[in-house]
Amino acid sequence: MKWITREHPKIDRIACPWLIKRFIDPDAEIIYVPFEQVTSKAKELDAIPFDLPGVEYSHYADQCTFDYFLKKHQLKDVALDRMATIIRGADTDRLDIAPQAAGLSAIFLGLSQNIKNDQELLELGLKVYDGLYTWAKHLHQQKHTQAPVEQLLLDVYHKYLKVASPKKAPQWTKELKEMIQDQMDTNMSLSLQQVSDELEINAAYLSREFSKYFDNLSFGDYIRKMRIEKAMLLMETTNYLLTEIAYLTGFSDQSHFNRIFKKQTGQNPSAYRKNGKKK
What we know:
Blueprint: E1 2-6, H1 12-24, E2 29-33, H2 38-45, E3 48-49, H3 65-72, H4 78-91, H5 101-114, H6 118-139, H7 148-164, H8 171-183, H9 192-199, H10 203-209, H11 219-237, H12 242-248, H13 254-265, H14 269-278
Parallel strand pairs: 1-2, 1-3
Helix pairs in contact: 1-6, 4-5, 4-6
């Protein structure tokens, strides 16, 4: 079976071939071509296209193509589910949803810069994902610090010393709050990677430290909270359609907006607006 996608793969377009070869079709041939040639070459070579708009194997809502492969082929494996979260976070710049996402993103961004031959990069990438699968299957609970004395010292530090000496909020938190406030007038499309680049702060560090200074929420949860608060304000002060409000607050589609709004407020946007008008 032949599978075809866009050239210059990084994360999802190497993860999906790994999944195909390891769990779906060991003899699969993976083909990389320029974006504009994928559709025509797929027909010419009788290959299945993946990870591009308009084809079956693609992104859906906040899920990436790797997620769709798992669903389509009914691959029930807790280790693959762990990998899917990491891959989704790395591939969509939502580095806050898994601690390992920033590392995976950094590894493949670096490898793609060093290795220009897509097939050579794929071969190395398969080994990287083999390692990630082994970790997700057998080692995900293992910590780097294993020695009892070291662990005891860390426990004491986190339980007593760290709590006893609260630090002043670093300068970057002020700059970040200003950046987020500026986004309130746009469609709230700010990503953790954009923030990391703008502030020149390591994305993994930013993801880890963010909740300490922003309502004890992860970056993604905080941005979603801000989006919903803006949506509520627009519903109360404008006559925009809900689809327009979803767009203005940075949601990819109406169903995604409805789901997040209900999760945050306990009711659908239409019910919220209706109840607001009754008051």
